C-alpha cells in the first residue's frame, strides 16, 4: 500500500469540515477491500456477511448482519478467530487506516479505526493495531457519541500517523456535579497513535494548539456556569498539551479506551 495514498481521515482531520467528517459512508477509506456476500440459500434473505480487511495485513473482520444490524462479529488472524461481542446490535458507520512505523523493522505498522452506532445515537469506536516485527494485534475500544464537536464547521490539520478520538463527555472534574457531554456539549479530544504496545493516547502539540483556538471560540456563548467551568479546565489542558507538557490526572483517568485483547503469532 502506497503511504502517500493513505489519508488520515479521523474526526477533525485533513482540513475537512467537522460535521461532514462524521456523515455515514463519507469516512470510508479507499484502501480497504469491502465485500458483501449474500446469505446462504435457505436462510433469512436479510442476513448477510460483510468482511473488511486492509491490504498487506493478515486480518479480516467478519460481520454477520441482519437488516444492517450486527448479529455477530469476528476478527480472524493467524492467531485464530476472536468474537467481538460488543459490536452486536450496532451498525457499521465508517473505517480508516493509518500506516506508520513503530517497531524495529522496515515494514509499515497499522492503526485501523472502525466506528459503529445504534439507532439511539451511541456506539463504539474499535481500534485494531498491528505491529509486524514480532506480529502482534492489539484490539481496543472506546464509546462513541455525537457531541458539539461533530457539528462544528471548522478545519484542523492532523499530522500523519495520528487519529483523533472525540470522547462522549468532558472529564469528571472535581467540584462539578456531573460530566457534560452529548450533542449540546463540547467534550475532551484525545490524539491516538500506534505504539509498540498498541493504540494509545499520545498528545500531539500541533493538534492541541488548534483545538485550543476552537474551544476558546466555542465556549464564548455558554451560559451554564458549571459547563463553563468544565470548558475552562479543558481549555487549560489543551494549552498545556500544546506546550508539550504531560497530561494531567483528570485527563488520563477519564480516558475511556479499553484494551480488549492482544493476539500474537510466530512468523
Structure explained in plain terms:
With 267 residues, the chain is an alpha+beta fold. Helix content is 15%, strand content 36%. The chain is built from four helices and 13 strands. Strands 1-2-3-4-5 form a five-stranded antiparallel sheet, with no helix packed on it. Strands 6-7-8-9-13 form a five-stranded antiparallel sheet, with no helix packed on it. Helix 2 packs antiparallel against helix 3. The N terminus is likely disordered.
Gyration radius (Cα, Å) is 19 Å
Note the overall shape.
globular
Derived structural class: alpha+beta
Q: Tell me the series of helices and strands, N- to C-terminal.
A: HEEEEEEEEEEEEHHHE
Ends apart, CA distance between termini? 20 Å
Mean pLDDT: 85
Portion of residues within helices: 10-25%
Topology of this protein?
Layout: H1 18-21, E1 32-37, E2 47-54, E3 60-66, E4 69-77, E5 80-83, E6 91-100, E7 109-117, E8 122-131, E9 136-145, E10 162-166, E11 189-195, E12 198-201, H2 205-218, H3 225-242, H4 249-253, E13 258-264
Antiparallel strand pairs: 1-2, 2-3, 3-4, 4-5, 6-7, 7-8, 8-9, 9-13, 10-11, 11-12
Provide a short characterization of the protein structure.
The chain is an alpha+beta fold.
Short descriptors:
267 residues, alpha+beta, five-stranded antiparallel beta sheet, disordered N terminus
